[in-house]
Amino acid sequence: MYKIRTNRNEIFESQNESILETMQKHGIYLQASCGGKGSCGRCKVKVTEGVVSSLSFFGISEKEKTSGYVLACQSYPKTDISIEIPERLITVSERISGAKVEIIDKIFTDNPHLFKPLIESMHLSIQPPTIEDSRADFERLKDAVGKNIFIARKTVKILSDYLRENNWQVKFVLSENEFINFLQSDEKIYAIAIDIGTTTVALAIVDLEKGKIVDLATCYNSQIAYGDDVITRIIYAIENLNGLEILRKSVVDDINALINTVKIRNKNSKILYVSLSGNTTMSHIFWGINPKYIREEPYVPVLNHYPLWKASDARLLLDSNVPVYTLPSVAGYIGGDIVSGVLASGIYKNENISLFIDIGTNGEVVIGNKDWLVTASTSAGPCFEGSGINCGMRATEGAIESFTYNKAGDFFKIKVIGNGKPSGICGSGMIDIVSELFTKGIINQKGKFLSESSKYIKMVDDELRFVISEECFISQADVDNIIRAKAAIYAGISTLLEEVGVSEKDIDKVYIAGGFGEFLDIKKAINIGMLPNISEDRFIFLGNTSLAGATLCLLSRQLKDLAEELADKMTYIDLSSSKRFMDEYVSALFLPHTDIERFT
Amino acid sequence: MYKIRTNRNEIFESQNESILETMQKHGIYLQASCGGKGSCGRCKVKVTEGVVSSLSFFGISEKEKTSGYVLACQSYPKTDISIEIPERLITVSERISGAKVEIIDKIFTDNPHLFKPLIESMHLSIQPPTIEDSRADFERLKDAVGKNIFIARKTVKILSDYLRENNWQVKFVLSENEFINFLQSDEKIYAIAIDIGTTTVALAIVDLEKGKIVDLATCYNSQIAYGDDVITRIIYAIENLNGLEILRKSVVDDINALINTVKIRNKNSKILYVSLSGNTTMSHIFWGINPKYIREEPYVPVLNHYPLWKASDARLLLDSNVPVYTLPSVAGYIGGDIVSGVLASGIYKNENISLFIDIGTNGEVVIGNKDWLVTASTSAGPCFEGSGINCGMRATEGAIESFTYNKAGDFFKIKVIGNGKPSGICGSGMIDIVSELFTKGIINQKGKFLSESSKYIKMVDDELRFVISEECFISQADVDNIIRAKAAIYAGISTLLEEVGVSEKDIDKVYIAGGFGEFLDIKKAINIGMLPNISEDRFIFLGNTSLAGATLCLLSRQLKDLAEELADKMTYIDLSSSKRFMDEYVSALFLPHTDIERFT
Fold first, then answer.
1. What backbone phi and psi angles, to 5 degrees, belong to A545?
2. CATH number listed for the domain at residues A2-85
3. How many angstroms separate the CA of residue B301 from the nearest CA in chain A?
4. B178: distance to nearest CA of chain A, Å?
5. How many CB pairs below 8 Å do chains A and B form together?
6. DSSP character at residue A353
7. CB–CB of A81/A51 below 8 Å?
């Protein structure tokens, strides 16, 4: 038995098991897409002290090996050891992609009548049978509940023993007219909300009695290996033998790993319901439904409103008859995540016109009020979520989240999440960097580095880079990528406003959803021309509204029903074939915009 | 490629396959509980000409081997061969255990409004999507159907391709609000009714469009190996590791073999619904639900009314989402088979009092009219179904079904089903034999053989036998067994009549259900004191009403709903603790009865 000390100063005991297993046992879930078989090469950790024995070094370069990197799943301590776990590997308690708990609290504080979870628990005392009253056990239960209920075969199988062992005192949960499961007397009734993003997967565990999110977990969507955006994923599903199943399994494995994490951290909880929110393609793939027709005109999904299927249908590692509610989609490119966002933002009940913008790998925009809602989608790419940028990462510990540059002194200041050494740049950091470098004349209106403007600009591998630290830099290709992303978002917003004949002045509130959350500097986002030039005080940050909406549906039947109505109420405008959108996009490929008037 | 000639003069070609496989391919399904693995020893056939190569002789005695017996599943022709298949092995087209088709026809001819099958087929033309109307595929389907429907995940997976491949012309079936399956244009919509008896399993395949039974198949319930009656089966389930699962699998394998048989014989049919009728224990075991509390006072089942589970829950070899309707039970010893019988007999709507008697391994009795129904159960044992009697067999080809004895000449006449050589004695034959031997003084009032009374009485293995042929005889133990069975049935009827205060004179009609069907000689059954002394013209034979009732439910939603109501309406009387019943039983252990007055 050896000790493992981590770079977070935790010390764990290893019991003849791999480093990965020790970490998992203690609730530190390292990304390991292959499930710890040594075949994905993702769970790299650096051994800084002590000796380990490694079965394999799959995916580790010679240089990394020399520096002490090993695969956590393949390595066993032979002495006490110290390890460094790269922050990006850890899937727990991310700030990014978390639902803002206060949004949910406020809704139920303001509208207590809405709080009615999708499942209800019952505690009943049932009359034991006698010769005079020999009704069957299930009939006794139904009579006590007072209505006809559906019960799964596997639950019936244990009914009679459960009743007798508990002296006819039963505690169980119902979902509408379906018996879901028995409860032990001290078990808590939990549910899970899942947001499947194209790039990240986030999960909230919800206490249904208290109506609170009690834990969060996030990881990258392992489908990234098969394409950065929904289009490349659909192509993968079409063109590869078993491609759809590979994609489905990737994300379900991710979710199961997150479920495992939250289960370990929240003992004595019984997860009895799941609510799932994602864009249309992600929802299709999650259920193993081929999204191929979403890619072809007229871009129709197989379904927008999903039947209430079961955890076993999805192959989630939960009781087989746990219901899985899927937020409805509006169209092929406006999914349940946006319906969730509309629900969580409340724009569907505002008198005045609001704008809702969800910035993820897709940028979706909704405009409207209590009477109408119009929506469109634009492909931003995954860069703001940390993917496709050399030093990109999610907004976790070690990420540069803000950046200021002093031109006169040619020095800069950075703010790193957790205040430690920077290990990468998250979305808000990227916007800060581009904005500062543009304002201070280090990059021009076209986003090109001016090579002599700062001592931090260096030519590496035939490309100019602004070097922030030994590990962090931003390259010309990165800046180009960020500009394309911001142009897509801006063009989506401006085209939609024109389509509905609303000007920026008419907009009362702008709700920002997505990974950025409160870390986005609005001024700088306007400065680079990503967001329209609207007074900063009208902006409201909502965080991950896909996860928030999924949580709301778990906690309120009325809001779940409303989600179904909203999906049908929203009018979708297809930008992909719009000439106006293409013009807007090309004009927005400058900093801040070709039409500088819009940003003065 | 060799030819196989059977004792029915059929000639089949064998394609490098076992004899069993050749037979199966041509719709002759031999009993092979092990599924053709050579481990049950049941599929014995006799090779009378030609050469076969056998991999194993499991369960075949040296004597049988010398006579040419081989296992059909383990034997391969090496020349053209001739074989003899014992009739009792063949599971097809049995006369016994068949539902009487005319009962069903009459109900729907008299009441055409009742004909409304549990599933409905729809043929719809759906509008293909356009840019202007880009509703999702499933939403288009729902809109065309005109209501919200549930659809399984695996069906959604094929929806979009099906719609496009069929040019948006769709043919499918719905069960209430659930989408069950697509249909190819020439497919027929079939369902299956199953009667699980303690001793025999019967299956009817039903054309739901025509409202007709189109095929029948029957076999023994393989659970026989684990006990003759429901009590011994329950004990087996309780006392053996995995006992319940062994029993469940036995009968489900039997049913799957029968399904296979009818599928082969009825090509181009799609089986889309199942209706299941059995006694309470059989229904529990079929669903893998432990019937243990049925055996303990107060004898309560786990459930009487079954949720609509699926073929996959039952592990039936049908599409996983085919619904399986289970006829409801009344109590631990009055099951869905009796509710079926009440439904099929129509006694629930008669003005006058009727008696319904189902003679199987249990004898169940129902008495009542349109206002009330009272029921009780008595254990007859499996002898009338051909089990537990030395030469017992079901009423198939080769069975002695009637017997007359000429005392003066000391000779007898027999009638054999199919007019061939007798190979055993079925239930009606047993009653005939006991009645004739009693009337003609070959056995006395206690059922004992008078050894010098006939030349056919021989002492074999220390026991007296009446020898009918080389293969057929009836022993003293057989006669004792038959008398116990008839006494149980009579005592059940007489006790119930006394309990409700109805005399034999008050009974307008007596409906006889069970394997006997029309082959039972009422006079002789009264003569031995099995049935009460009621005028013969009041008796009506209904055949297998368990199967008929299950079929009726498939064809009529209203009758299915009525079955649920009838189960609650019937009052159960427990005879097991009744002193009156014990007295009646002991008195009935004579021929015809201790109280001879009752039979004059």
1. -75, -20
2. 3.10.20.30
3. 5
4. 10
5. 117
6. -
7. yes
Nearest chain A residue (CA) to B289: A157
* Separation CA B168–CA B419 (nearest Å): 56
Distance CA A77, CA A4 (A): 8
Contacts of A303 in chain B (CB under 8 A): 136-139, 156, 159
Among A133, A303, A330, A570, which would you mutate to test the B interface (most chain B Cβ atoms within 10 Å of its Cβ)?
A: A303
> Would you say the CATH fold of B120-182 matches that of B101-114+187-326?
no
Smallest CA–CA distance from A177 into chain B, residue: B307
How many other C-beta atoms are found inside a 10 Å radius of the C-beta of residue B56?
15
Give the separation between CA B322 and CA B422, rounded to whole angstroms. 42
Q: How far A119 CA lies from chain B's nearest CA (Å)?
A: 20
**Strand ranges for B380-445 from DSSP E:** 399-406, 411-416, 424-425
CATH domain B348-382+482-592 topology: Nucleotidyltransferase; domain 5 (3.30.420)
Strand-strand pairing, B188-196 and B178-182: unpaired
Helix (H, G, I), strand (E, B) or coil at B412: strand
When CB atoms are compared, the residue of A134, A138, A300 closest to B331 is A134
Chain B interface mutation, best of A126, A127, A139, highest count of B Cβ atoms under 10 Å: A139
With beta carbons less than 8 A apart as the criterion, state whether A428 and A523 touch.
Answer: no
CB A406 within 8 A of CB A376: no
For a pLDDT cut of 70, what percent of chain A falls above it? 94
Distance CA B272, CA B269 (A): 9
Distance from CA of B265 to the nearest CA of A (A): 32
**Which residue out of B156, B163, B287 would a mutagenesis test of the A interface target, given it has the greatest number of A Cβ atoms within 10 Å?**
B156
**Given this structure, which CATH class describes domain B101-114+187-326?**
alpha beta
**Buried residues in B383-422 as b, exposed as e (16+ CB within 10 A):** bbbbbbbebbbbbbbbbbbbbebeeeeeebebbbbeeeeb
Q: Where are the domains of chain B?
A: 2-85, 101-114+187-326, 120-182, 348-382+482-592, 385-477
What is the dotted CATH code of the domain comprising A338-382+482-593? 3.30.420.40
Decide if B38 contacts B74 (C-beta within 8 A).
yes
ipTM of the complex model: 0.81
> Rounded to an integer, what distance in angstroms lies between the CA atom of residue A93 and that of residue A104?
18
pTM of the model: 0.82
Task: Compute the average pLDDT of residues B531-541.
Answer: 94
Point out the residue among B136, B297, B301 whose CB comes nearest to the CB of A300: B136
- Strand pairing category for B399-406 and B411-416: antiparallel
- Strand pairing category for A539-543 and A509-514: parallel
Residue type present at position A538:
R
| CA nearest to A74, candidates A39, A23, A46 | A39
Instruction: Yes or no: say if B276 and B322 are a contact pair by the CB < 8 Å rule.
Output: no
CATH placement of domain A120-182:
3.10.20.880
Mean pLDDT value across residues A161-187: 93
CA atoms within 13 A on the CB side of A484: 15
Contact A83, A6 (CB under 8 A): yes
A228-234: average pLDDT: 90
Q: What is residue B184's predicted lDDT score, i.e. its pLDDT? A: 86
Chain-chain contact of B329 with A131 (C-beta, under 8 angstroms)? no
Question: Which residues on chain A place their C-beta less than 8 Å from a C-beta of chain B?
Answer: 129-131, 134-139, 150-153, 156-157, 159-160, 287-290, 292-293, 297-305, 307, 309, 313, 329, 331-332, 572, 574
Measured distance CA(A571)–CA(A560) in Å, rounded: 19
Asked whether residue B274 carries a pLDDT value surpassing 80, the answer given is: yes
The first and second tokens of residue A106, run together, are 């406020």
User: How much is the pLDDT for A133?
Assistant: 92
